[in-house]
Amino acid sequence: MEKLIGKLQEWGTRQVVVLADSNVAALYPRYFENLADAFPCHFMEIPAGENSKNVENAVRVWERLLELNMDRSDTLLMFGGGMVCDLGGFIAATFKRGIHCVYCPTTLLAMIDAAIGGKTAVNLNHVKNCVGLVRQPDYIMSPDLAFLETLPAEELKSGFGEIIKYALIASFPLFDELRKTEVLSADSIQESWIQKCVAIKNRIVESDPCDYKERHVLNFGHTFGHAIEGYQASLGQSIPHGAAVAAGLLYESELSEKITGLPHDQLLEIKNLVRRHFDVPEFSKELWRKWVPFMHQDKKNKEGKINFTLLKEIGTPVISVYIQDYPF
Ligand SMILES: NC(=O)c1ccc[n+]([C@@H]2O[C@H](COP(=O)([O-])OP(=O)(O)OC[C@H]3O[C@@H](n4cnc5c(N)ncnc54)[C@H](O)[C@@H]3O)[C@@H](O)[C@H]2O)c1
Questions:
Q1: Structural domain boundaries of the chain?
Q2: Atom 5 of ligand 1: nearest residue by CA position
Q3: Which of 151, 239, 268, 279 is deepest in the core (most CB within 10 A)?
Q4: 122 lines ligand 1 (CB under 6 A)
Q5: What is the mean pLDDT of the segment spanning 58-72?
Q6: What's the rounded Cα separation, in Å, for the pair 213 and 231?
């Protein structure tokens, strides 16, 4: 907290708005007590859940910032998971063309992914992340692992799925450590894993901040993952993001064996780890037929072919692999 206070003083911040979702606000009402002693702080809450990541909530917050007469030296601090970070990051980037933006991530997924890289967005008419921009936050608070103690198991799993992804695209040693995880709980999440994932994401984002090429490696597992989520949503059902991505990691590893030469023994290790923590159905032509229309909607596709990131081996990704027909 002292480091944050130092930053705010450096920026000449006169007042801070803390934006939290309703769950986080209820669980941690006093987390920013010390900050509120040092600076005038205004607390704002929005309902928890992805449905809140919309323009209407952006307008509500912009109006409040205007009412408080916030200027560009002032700070909007996001307290929550990826939903709050994406929404609040967008608000901070656009209000008066940019006020200071701080993230305090409270989910595993936000600690290792959503708070890093500067992508901000709101959803529009059920189109995810339809309106947004890339703008790096001014400061990200160090992940506080105590937040994981209250995180629902499903959310912890979502974050763990992303940790597996980082290992697969960038670090065999990290994969080796993850392989040893028998049961997933807040206590089993190592701080060193979070630090490694943050370093991997920072390195990739620095090489391609606006997501033209190198940053596509971060999509490993997500081509299938997003299609599965889209298909479920079209049925009016939902699937936890982590479960969809875990299935994507497994299927895209199978594709990697076929197309980019992922060694068979590595594929078996990946299957072992993913299936130990996630319930993933065997791949079939029938599933492909259901999901393929959703994969065709991906912005990164070219000439009707689906753009995959695959693996040559664990830790060595290959971007821009285009596939048209049933690949198995
Ligand atoms: N900007 C990016 O680069 C990026 C990357 C990945 C995901 N995202 C976005 O992030 C969002 C998903 O993030 P998420 O998984 O963190 O979801 P989320 O922010 O919706 O949080 C998930 C649930 O956990 C609750 N929660 C948060 N912290 C808690 C805690 N410590 N204890 C108990 N409950 C807690 C929330 O209230 C919510 O119900 C999506 O909107 C996605 O598009 C963005």
A1: 2-149, 154-323
A2: 114
A3: 151
A4: no
A5: 98
A6: 26
Q: What is the pLDDT of residue 119?
A: 95
pLDDT-derived band of residue 211, with 50, 70 and 90 as boundaries? confident
Tokens of residue 154, six digits: 């499903």
* Annotation: CATH topology of 2-149: Rossmann fold (3.40.50)
Q: Is the CB of 23 under 6 A from ligand 1?
A: yes
Q: Is the CB of 132 under 6 A from ligand 1?
A: no
Contact call for residues 249 and 220 (beta carbons, < 8 A): yes
Q: pLDDT tens across 137-196, in order?
A: 999 999 999 999 999 999 999 999 999 999 999 999 999 999 999 999 999 999 999 999
Question: What is the DSSP annotation of 36-77?
Answer: HHHS-EEEEEE-SSGGG-BHHHHHHHHHHHHHTT--TTSEEE
Where b means 16+ CB within 10 Å and e means fewer, 21-37 reads bebbbeebeebbeebee
The verdict on the CB of residue 110 being under 6 Å from ligand 1 is yes
Which single residue is written with the structure tokens 């040092």? 38
Residues 6+ apart with CB under 8 A from 107: 80, 81, 82, 114, 147, 151, 155, 158, 159
Specify the length of the chain in residues: 328
pLDDT in tens, 275-297: 999 999 898 889 999 999 899 88
Six-digit token string for 204: 């990739």
Backbone angles phi, psi at 294, to 5 degrees: -75, -30
> 69, 79, 138, 70: which is closest to 110 by C-alpha?
79
The confidence score (pLDDT) of residue 302 equals 85
Verify whether ligand 1 is closer than 6 Å to residue 53 (CB atom): yes
Question: Which of 148, 203, 214, 157 minimizes the C-alpha distance to 184?
Answer: 157
- Model confidence, pTM: 0.95
Q: Which residues, in sequence order, are CB contacts of 230 under 8 Å at separation 6+?
A: 294, 297
Q: What confidence category does residue 81 fall into, taking pLDDT thresholds of 50, 70 and 90?
A: very high
Pick the CATH number of 154-323 from 3.30.450.20, 1.20.1090.10, 1.20.1260.10, 1.10.10.60: 1.20.1090.10
